[in-house]
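Session log. Operator J.P. requested a structure for one protein chain; no other inputs attached. Running the standard single-chain path with token output.
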Amino acid sequence: MKHFYLIFLTLLINFAESDASLKKELSGIVIKISDGDTITILDSLNNTHRIRLYGIDCPEKGQDYFQVAKDYLGDLCFQKTVYIQIMHTDQYKRPVAKVYVDSLELNYLLLKEGLAWQYTAYDKSLHYQKAQEEAKIKKKNIWSLGNPIAPWEFRKTKRLKTLNKQSA
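Structure written below.
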């Protein structure tokens, strides 16, 4: 019985280590930049993990500054080792995380550069709020536009247009 228990415990630990959604931390090399707030990493076991950056929302494809945000994130982390602090898992079962290169938090840097909105539906931190306010005051990137449309509003409008076309 003791032998069975040890085997069971070993399998449970191995399973937990292979499932990023059960871990709070992860590290790996960035192998893909999907957009300004989504990356894919390759861990030491050659498993890939698609990671959504926590607390921010970057411009969507078709919005001003989409490519700038994507390129900026790529410049910061592509083909570099990143440390992932998982905050939760989203509806698509992706880890949602704070992402670090060395000691630099990429989520924060995107806000500070005016390439992301603080996603207040999920994060209300003063740290992120101050970074966004600083970018607004300096009219950096998205904040240089007269009236930038937040990505969640852009997605909502796009969905409504699609629904209207389907019902017409």
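Operator note: The first strand starts at residue 25 and ends at 35.
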